[in-house]
Amino acid sequence: MGAGKKYYLGFDLGGTNMVAGIVDENYTIIARESSPTKAGRSIEVITSEMAEVSKRAIQKAGLTLEDISSWGIGMPSYVNPKTNLLVHANNFGWKNVPIYEHLQKHISLPIYIANDANCAAYGEVLAGAASAYTDAIMLTLGTGVGGGIVMDKKIYSGYDNMGAELGHTKLVFNGIECTCGQKGCLESYCSSTALIRKTRELVDNHPGTMIMELCGQDKEQINGEFIFEAAKNKDPFASSLIEEYICYLAAGISTFITIFRPEVIILGGGMAHAGDFLLEPLNKQLYTSTFAAEEIGIPKVIQAKLGNDAGIIGAAFLEKTMQR
Amino acid sequence: MGAGKKYYLGFDLGGTNMVAGIVDENYTIIARESSPTKAGRSIEVITSEMAEVSKRAIQKAGLTLEDISSWGIGMPSYVNPKTNLLVHANNFGWKNVPIYEHLQKHISLPIYIANDANCAAYGEVLAGAASAYTDAIMLTLGTGVGGGIVMDKKIYSGYDNMGAELGHTKLVFNGIECTCGQKGCLESYCSSTALIRKTRELVDNHPGTMIMELCGQDKEQINGEFIFEAAKNKDPFASSLIEEYICYLAAGISTFITIFRPEVIILGGGMAHAGDFLLEPLNKQLYTSTFAAEEIGIPKVIQAKLGNDAGIIGAAFLEKTMQR
């Protein structure tokens, strides 16, 4: 990392878009550039475009490469520190690719790569919802469930850097099959995909539910927002779905509390947009569902604050949390 | 901790016995003394006896208090670092007691107290089955299920020191009620108590099982050893019980791997005495039951080596892992 350099290049490589942000020492994104990822293209093409988008962001900020301390990248995968290969990125169709080598061809900065959910958690602790804390756990509840663990203001991702996959901890013994091939993962009960799937399965038994109204009577259009909207309007079917969802989520979070006892739990991703409507009953349920809550208390679940910026800010500061 | 002092006083306060050990810098217990705990007595009486047993051990080692660096104590409870009170020790009937104050009256050494399962894990990493590693998770499978996490050769017990309660992570959503009041805890499926309970429930449906032979046809005498013994002899009922037990245990361990990806998992406690008969199928099942095992591998489950000494050695060296 560059001594005296005061700007950081944070990069979020998502399945749909890639975004580069220039972040200053106060965790403010002073410039950003983006481009569609078009996943499915080769690693050569995508890493070359990542560099281009990054250079545009640097230029937009009125800076040069010399002003930048490092290039931190969050993406939905992880690098095996023993091999330095990107283990697998399902969305991209990559497996064991030498991503550092590819990136270095284009930009000569120290490069740090971490899982995007870890970056988001780190960003929220550095500058977002959990900035008052040092130890937090974040769950990103979207199409999948991402997990990030921050201890003492640093990312914890397991001994070999490939842990903290909180979405793939077991929630239901021998439960629903997950996209990962395992059964009963937290993700297969607490992602928006899981909630929507369950709703579609059961909706025919609940004629007149507001959910069908909201989705224009087209089951395929059901989404998380509609389900929460209907529940807010006291639709009985939607309410029972959300109630059950909260029980699953509380059970999952209770395990993380029982292990880590963090200061705070952060929820991000699409499902967290429900805000207090989700958080209030969740916090209540969590108290009931967690080991020794009465004796020693439990941390509060709060909503993420930075949205997608969390991942960029977290990635930008990976140099402060990772060894390479 | 005393500079230049080369002996450590490790203490294991169990529900049945209390043991003091003098441990040297090579993790060897050079002297030990013990006494029945007689749980149920007041904290004044028990702490006074703890001091006495400890002093006897020091004397037995041919040392004086001046040779001892600190007094480290493992017990089935934890101290709230905010209040310095022992939160609760169910076996003892204590709740929020100022245990440090009581102990200090008798022996003027720096005192460190930690959960006994953490001490055992730490002892195994310092000097036992996991001495070649820095990052390990240990499960103590006995009447209950204790958990210990060691990272970078230090105990990790959560932000507030009251975490790492691995036995009370959720294994089965809405499952069997646990002694802690929660439902579906790992402990309520993977303790010897759980295995024995299940066996007693089902044994009447399996006339002729070797388990009943081994226990002299008295259901109340069924224990873990008999069940494993019958399974080793290919008794079908016992084999199916052990098979199911291994599935539960693998699911529980898979969650810890997915989070921590430690170098090794250590099993201790009565159930671990089954040795390879348990470990071989468990390691196989774990490979099948763990997220991304094929892509990134999984750590091996091994048997603890030090027995009860692990807790004494771990306790003795708490000064190297705890702040006070």
Explain the layout of strands and helices.
2 copies of one chain form a homodimer.
Chain A: E1 7-13, E2 17-24, E3 29-36, H1 43-60, E4 68-75, E5 79-80, E6 85-89, E7 94-97, H2 99-104, E8 111-115, H3 116-127, E9 136-141, E10 145-151, E11 154-156, H4 187-190, H5 192-202, H6 210-214, H7 224-232, H8 236-260, E12 264-268, H9 276-289, H10 293-296, E13 300-303, H11 309-316
Parallel strand pairs in A: 1-4, 4-8, 9-12, 12-13
Antiparallel strand pairs in A: 1-2, 2-3, 5-6, 6-7, 9-10, 10-11
Helix pairs in contact in A: 3-11, 7-8, 8-9
Explain what this protein looks like in three dimensions.
- Two copies of one chain form a homodimer.
- Chain A is an alpha/beta fold.
- Chain A folds into two domains: 132 residues, Nucleotidyltransferase, domain 5 (2-Layer Sandwich), CATH 3.30.420.40; 172 residues, ATPase, nucleotide binding domain (Nucleotidyltransferase, domain 5, 2-Layer Sandwich), CATH 3.30.420.40.
- The first copy, chain A, has eleven helices and 13 strands.
- In chain A, strands 3-2-1-4-8 form a five-stranded mixed sheet, with helices on both faces.
- Chain A is globular.
- The termini of chain A are close together.
- The relative contact order of chain A is 0.15.
- The mean pLDDT of chain A is 95.
- The interface between A and B is large, with 49 and 48 residues.
